[in-house]
Specification:
It contains ten helices and seven strands. Strand 5 and strand 6 form a beta hairpin. Helix 3 packs antiparallel against helix 4. The longest helix has 17 residues.
């Protein structure tokens, strides 16, 4: 019906919808409009359609806020496995809104409204973890990050959130000891879908690099192997995460 409305060949339309052929962002947008998709969904999927297959893209965003990019939301929503690492802060998917806002305020480059919207966008991305069939998520946390002092309420809320995450059957938190050797890398996340397609997103202060070519993914796979080998077991990691001194001292809930 939609193919006829758009004047498209039904066979070609079927192959495009099933992913057997690529489609330009404009064609995807026209199809979604005809299908009466909501504007947010049209923007999100159209942006992803314009990515080059087996290549890379650089996508710019406000300082420290890749969460504002439709591609990142799409990758999280379609992933069956997620592996995240951040060298200097908690990985995005395990941050509370207060932690995110504290990190964003520290850079002094964002307006208050942008900080609020950015924290809300990050929380919205995290809803994938609460879905019944959400992705199996592993987050590697540098031990030095846990020694960073936070405001008392923010520290307490983040530790309380850890209590929930360490009991989550599909969420695995592992601490990397301060003396563990890992090749210097920026923060990154690996997404894998049910078809075995892998994408890595690499974070810089104002842009996100999206990689899916096998040779581009290889260094990140090696880093993940080093992280897995050097990180503490989950039980030991949980004890450290839930310790009352995490993030700068004892604070009651």
């Amino acid at each position: 019906m939609i193919a006829g409305e758009l004047g498209w060949n039904p066979a070609k339309t079927s192959r495009m919808v099933s992913g057997h052929i690529t489609a330009a962002g404009l064609d995807v947008a026209r199809f979604l409009v005809a299908a009466e998709a909501i504007p947010e969904e049209i923007d999100r999927v159209s942006a992803v359609a314009d990515l080059s297959p087996r290549a890379y893209s650089v996508q710019f965003h406000p300082p420290g806020l890749p969460d504002m990019l439709p591609t990142l939301s799409y990758l999280g929503a379609s992933a069956s496995t997620i592996i995240a690492y951040e060298p200097h802060r908690l990985p995005h998917l395990i941050q509370t809104a207060g932690y995110t806002a504290t990190m964003l305020r520290d850079n002094n480059l964002l307006a208050k409204k942008t900080v609020r919207n950015g924290a809300a966008a990050r929380q919205e991305r995290q809803t994938i973890l609460s879905r019944p069939t959400g992705p199996v998520t592993t987050a590697y946390i540098n031990e030095t990050v846990l020694s960073q002092a936070l405001p008392g309420r923010v520290a307490a809320e983040q530790r309380l959130h850890f209590h929930t995450l360490v009991r989550h059957p599909r969420c695995h938190l592992r601490i990397l000891p301060a003396d563990a050797y890992v090749t210097a890398m920026p923060g990154f996340t690996l997404f894998q879908d049910d078809h075995g397609h892998d994408v890595v997103t690499v974070y810089t202060p104002t842009a996100m690099l999206v990689l899916d070519a096998p040779d581009h993914l290889a260094p990140y796979r090696q880093t993940i192997a080093r992280l897995a080998a050097g990180a503490l077991p989950e039980t030991d990691s949980a004890a450290r995460l839930l310790a009352p001194g995490t993030f700068g001292g004892e604070t009651t809930y």
